[in-house]
Amino acid sequence: MEESATLRIGSENYNFPLIKGTESEIAVDLRTLRSESSCITFDDGYGNTGSCESKVTFIDGEKGILRYRGYPIEQLAEKSNFLESAFALLYGELPSENQLNSFRKKISDNAGLRENMAKGLHSFAPDAHPMAVLSAMVNNLGTYHPEKSTNDRKRDLEAFDDTAALLISAIRTIAARDYRNRKGLAPIPSDPSLGYCADFLQMTFGDSNNPQPPPQKVCEALNLVFLLHADHEQNCSTSTCRMVASGGANVFASVSAAIGALWGPLHGGANMAVIKMLKDIHDSGDDGSRFIEDAKNGKKRLMGFGHRVYKNYDPRAKILNVACNDALEELGVSSPILDIARHLEEVALSDEYFIQRKLYPNVDFYSGILLEAIGFPLNMFTVIFAIGRLPGWLSHWKEIAESGSKIHRPRQVYQGATVRDYVSIEER
Ligand code: ACO
């Protein structure tokens, strides 16, 4: 294959080198395009733009491949757990036993919130969205750790190991305490002996008078939800995190911005949309059959089906489907909503419309069902996504800070008014 690409603009030819990724992806390196030709590229939505070179996560949507640091998601889901996979994402390699133990210890040592910070959780409006609270509280956490949020890349990088452990731990405490505040329930302190997920479930739903370890299969399923969401390369929130980091902002500010990006319904909100859809179907007295017909006629969208990147099968959905079944069985939940979900899944998987268009259930279909069954309120689903995605954001913050990358500053094609004279207010 040619090592360069030629672009003809008007009568001029310009040559650009190619960059080849380790998985054979080819990019045309256009960094000198503007200085050589005075032209820029236009790629609304960045669907054809490589914004960086990254070593964190590989996705091949056509083949249904997802790998963190080269490790297939199927192997991580079967043999690893959220914290071990988080370590691999952050540091590039699976940890030794000692490394994993000290990583775990650092995380459990950081589960508590300083008193003033915990009080700050009461300063939000009673019906504040949990994602607004989470984003603000993550930035707030940084203010309690000025030595970790200096906006001096070198110093923030030196503190990175502690910062990452602090955030991975505190994010679930913030989420759990915010949930209990809204219910008027007293906080439950962290119990590190339970493990990351069980401790989070206990801090959220536990009965302080009668502490019971959460059901094993539910902890395993939540652990999978976190693991499967831990990174997904240059998505909207991760790109936001990298963008903010490129300006030299500290980890807390970059993650806080990423949480804001994830909040959007087109990004982190799809699992909520699944449950809303199922409830609407139920309330309308349908068993799902009418909705399927409406989806085929283009009147409705079957939420939780299809994916912009995965045109084969979302590999995360396959894994979560099984765990979701196990957890539902252990929880002993049965509800008409779940019956509708199963019916939709069954019909859509055997219907030509969905088969032809390769519309399979995506990870949001099963995470929505699972989170609903565990008892998370709908507006907390995206918070769970954020807890899972945090190691990815942190890994990308570290990657960009270590790379010394320059500030991200896209250009635009200006389509506004051309130059005109100021008109005084009396003459307008
Ligand atoms: N229900 C019914 N029909 C669908 C659906 C769906 N969920 N998704 C796509 N189609 C149809 C389209 O109508 C189109 O049909 P046509 O060829 O007859 O016109 C065809 O399938 C291709 O659809 P596109 O919109 O071009 O597919 P695209 O890749 O752009 O969209 C998307 C992907 C946005 C995820 C879409 O499938 C969708 O809206 N799904 C439901 C929402 C959802 O679950 N989002 C979560 C994605 S996962 C994540 O973000 C973690």
Kindly describe this structure.
- 53% of the residues lie in helices and 7% in strands.
- The chain is mainly alpha-helical and 428 residues long.
- It has three domains: 4-50, Single Sheet (Rubrerythrin, domain 2), CATH 2.20.28; 70-266, Citrate Synthase, domain 1 (Orthogonal Bundle); 270-374, Orthogonal Bundle (Cytochrome p450-Terp, domain 2), CATH 1.10.230.
- The longest helix has 24 residues, at 160-183.
- It is globular and about 75 Å long.
- 41% of the residues are buried.
Q: What gap, in angstroms, lies between the N and C termini? A: 61 Å
Known CATH architecture of the largest domain:
Orthogonal Bundle
What is the overall number of helices?
A: 19
Structural domains: how many: 3
Q: Major beta sheet, specifics?
A: 3 strands, antiparallel
Poorly predicted sequence stretches spanning 5 or more consecutive residues? none
Strand content: 5-15%
CATH class of the largest domain equals: Mainly Alpha
Give the total of beta strands. 6
Shape: globular
Instruction: Classify the secondary structure makeup into a structural class.
Output: mainly alpha
Ligands and ions found: acetyl coenzyme *A
CATH topology of the largest domain: Citrate Synthase, domain 1
Q: Helical content, roughly?
A: 40-55%
Compressed to H and E, one letter per element, the order equals EEEHEEEHHHHHHHHHHHHHHHHHH
Query: Going across the major beta sheet, what is the strand order?
Result: 1-2-3
Radius of gyration: 24 Å
Average residue-wise pLDDT: 94
CATH superfamily membership of the largest domain: Citrate Synthase, domain 1
